[in-house]
């Protein structure tokens, strides 16, 4: 959805999860503007015929399953049958896109996966250099390393960069750290870097504890405002004493309270919001504490009752907890309110926990689109000048 909002037209949307596909189909049938013309294929991407896409492809975007690399998984990386990075490289090799965007969990960059991560980056840089039948993974990695250090740019090659980004730094009301891997085809000569962060924790602290405008905006009276914790006192004092903040300073992190503005309590009868129903059973215990209202939410996870840190719960003003409704979770992932989700609450939360925040995806994809458009314009002007000679 973020890629579509950035202006790309999808030639194929491949998804194998039934409930995710049902969600897309229902919204498409209802002519929801972002997805109503998506060519959806409910299939295993390993069985998809990339040769059916005859048009030139500007962008390949996707998120291979994160379970092989997740902190909560078995950490088997390429030994896990769910590792779809080989398919990702294969798609890029076959489609030869001008650019690609790949998203995954931060755990992919951990030291224990460093060799595999470097191997992956080199495969994305040189997708035509496939593993030979007589090579094991280490031999293939060594060959890729030699080509990389030689400075080779012949054939299909990509300039690849990656960065771990926090969604909260881009205006998403959720502290969600994920790695983005972005590549541009080398023959385009494009120079690109990740978009600048637009929001910060420091700006939120200033709005809450220096100016108080955060509480005023949410109409929280003085007697109901929380007190500054001892751990924050020195930090707040430093912010108070700072008199030389730049004019283009970042905006405040958006909190759970910010993200849920306008949503009634789920117990409210006749709510006009889709998927906004109370879910019973939330419990708070050590290490399972939920998300405070006045900070960005913890990163939503695909699990439901068993997620380890209570990521799918919110802590109310009185200290009690309840589960986020599906609509509240969708708000935290910056999905539009008119987008319906199919399935039981547990299935919807799994869809949302596996998703990329729409706003963050749009920001990254828009910056890629801008570079591709400028490159097209430069190429067009160059052609006109050459013909005019």
What does this structure look like?
- The chain has 389 residues and is α/β, with parallel strands linked by helices.
- It folds into three domains: 2-197 and 359-388, 3-Layer(aba) Sandwich (Rossmann fold), CATH 3.40.50.150; 199-249, no CATH class; 255-356, DNA Methylase, Chain A, domain 2.
- It has twelve helices and 13 strands.
- The chain has helices spanning 2-5, 18-29, 85-95, 114-125, 137-150, 201-209, 213-217, 230-241, 256-259, 326-332, 345-353, 358-388; strands at residues 13-15, 40-42, 59-62, 99-105, 158-166, 174-175, 177-185, 199-200, 251-252, 291-292, 297-298, 313-315, 321-323.
- Strands 3-4-7-5 form a four-stranded mixed beta sheet, sandwiched between helices. Strands 10-12-13 form a three-stranded mixed beta sheet, with no helix packed on it.
- It starts with a helix and ends with a helix.
Strands, helices and their partners?
Blueprint: H1 2-5, E1 13-15, H2 18-29, E2 40-42, E3 59-62, H3 85-95, E4 99-105, H4 114-125, H5 137-150, E5 158-166, E6 174-175, E7 177-185, E8 199-200, H6 201-209, H7 213-217, H8 230-241, E9 251-252, H9 256-259, E10 291-292, E11 297-298, E12 313-315, E13 321-323, H10 326-332, H11 345-353, H12 358-388
Parallel strand pairs: 1-2, 3-4, 6-11, 8-9, 10-12
Antiparallel strand pairs: 4-7, 5-7, 12-13
Helix pairs in contact: 4-5
């Amino acid at each position: 959805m973020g890629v579509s909002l950035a202006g790309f037209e999808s030639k194929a949307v491949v998804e194998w999860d039934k409930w995710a596909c049902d969600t897309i189909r229902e919204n498409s049938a209802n002519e929801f503007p972002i997805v109503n013309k998506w060519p959806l294929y409910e299939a295993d991407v390993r069985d998809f015929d990339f040769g059916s896409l005859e048009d030139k492809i500007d962008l390949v975007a996707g998120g291979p399953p994160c379970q092989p690399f997740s902190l909560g998984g078995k950490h088997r990386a390429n030994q896990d049958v769910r590792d779809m990075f080989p398919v990702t490289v294969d798609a890029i090799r076959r489609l030869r896109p001008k650019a690609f965007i790949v998203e995954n969990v931060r755990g992919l960059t951990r030291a224990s996966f460093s060799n595999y991560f470097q191997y992956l980056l080199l495969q994305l840089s040189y997708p035509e250099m496939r593993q030979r039948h007589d090579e094991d993974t280490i031999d293939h990695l060594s060959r890729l390393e030699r080509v990389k250090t030689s400075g080779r740019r012949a054939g299909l090659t990509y300039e690849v960069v990656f960065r771990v980004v926090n969604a909260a730094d881009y205006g998403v009301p959720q502290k969600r750290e994920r790695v983005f891997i972005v590549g541009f085809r080398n023959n385009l000569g494009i120079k690109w870097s990740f978009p600048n962060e637009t929001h910060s924790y420091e700006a939120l602290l200033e709005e809450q504890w220096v100016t108080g405008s955060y509480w005023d905006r949410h109409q929280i009276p003085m007697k109901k405002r929380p007190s500054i914790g001892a751990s924050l006192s020195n930090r707040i004092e430093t912010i108070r004493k700072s008199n030389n903040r730049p004019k283009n300073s970042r905006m405040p992190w958006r909190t759970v309270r910010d993200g849920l503005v306008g949503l009634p309590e789920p117990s409210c009868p006749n709510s006009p919001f889709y998927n906004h129903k109370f879910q019973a059973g939330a419990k708070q215990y050590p290490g399972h504490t939920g998300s405070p209202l006045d900070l960005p939410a913890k990163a939503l996870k695909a699990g439901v009752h068993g997620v380890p840190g209570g990521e799918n719960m919110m802590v109310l003003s009185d200290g009690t907890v309840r589960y986020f409704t599906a609509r509240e979770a969708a708000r935290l992932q910056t999905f539009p309110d008119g987008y319906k989700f199919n399935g039981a609450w547990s299935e919807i939360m799994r869809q949302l926990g596996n998703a990329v925040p729409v706003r963050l995806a749009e920001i990254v994809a828009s910056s890629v689109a801008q570079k591709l458009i400028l490159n097209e314009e430069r190429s067009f002007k160059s052609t006109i000048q050459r013909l005019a000679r």
